[in-house]
Amino acid sequence: MTALSVLIVEDDAIIGQLLAEILEDMGHMVCAIVATEDEAVADAMRHQPGLMLVDLNLQEGDGISAVDRILKNGPKPYVLMSGAPMRAGRPSATVLRKPFSEQDLAQAIQRVVAPRS
């Protein structure tokens, strides 16, 4: 798989940093780790990442709203993440249930990026 620039949207700083380390070990580059919906939208516009990993439940804002706002400017692959019970909506989205393994993450990335390759 080609190395990707990845935007991490995660309001738990420790999880965000762990994800960044895993992604970098996989050969990807993390362009930013942000914690709020507004930061996600701003950094997606600034960095134009090749992939977004987005937590569904943020302390400030909402992961799905962030994705919706970002996708108004064109398609961009993303993987949603959640440690909370799953809620309805986005039946076609790839969602990782926390905690997940590095293999689960790699498979999810492949699933959302492969159609664009």
Largest sheet: 5 strands, parallel
| Number of helical segments with 4 or more residues | 4
Order of helices and strands: EHEHEHEEH
The CATH topology annotation reads as: Rossmann fold
Output the CATH class name.
Alpha Beta
Question: Hey, roughly how much beta strand do the residues contain?
Answer: 15-25%
Name the CATH architecture.
3-Layer(aba) Sandwich
Q: Measured on Cα atoms, how large is the radius of gyration?
A: 13 Å
Strands across the major sheet, in which order? 2-1-3-4-5
Q: If you average the pLDDT, what whole number results?
A: 91
Provide the CATH superfamily: Response regulator
- Could you say which structural class the secondary elements and strand pairing correspond to? alpha/beta
Low-confidence stretches: none
What level of helicity do the residues show?
25-40%
End-to-end gap: 9 Å
What order do the helices and strands come in, and which of them pair?
Elements: E1 5-9, H1 13-25, E2 29-34, H2 37-47, E3 51-55, H3 63-71, E4 78-82, E5 95-97, H4 102-113
Parallel strand pairs: 1-2, 1-3, 3-4, 4-5
Molecular structure report:
With 117 residues, this protein is of the alpha/beta class. It has one domain (5-116): Response regulator (Rossmann fold). The chain is built from four helices and five strands, in the order βαβαβαββα. A five-stranded parallel β-sheet has the order 2-1-3-4-5, sandwiched between helices. α1 links the parallel β1 (5-9) and β2 (29-34). α2 (37-47) packs parallel to α3. It is globular and about 30 Å long. It starts with a strand and ends with a helix. Keywords: Phosphoprotein, Two-component regulatory system. It holds the Pfam family Response_reg. It comes from Rhodopila globiformis. Residues 5-113 form the Response regulatory domain. The modification 4-aspartylphosphate is found at residue 55.
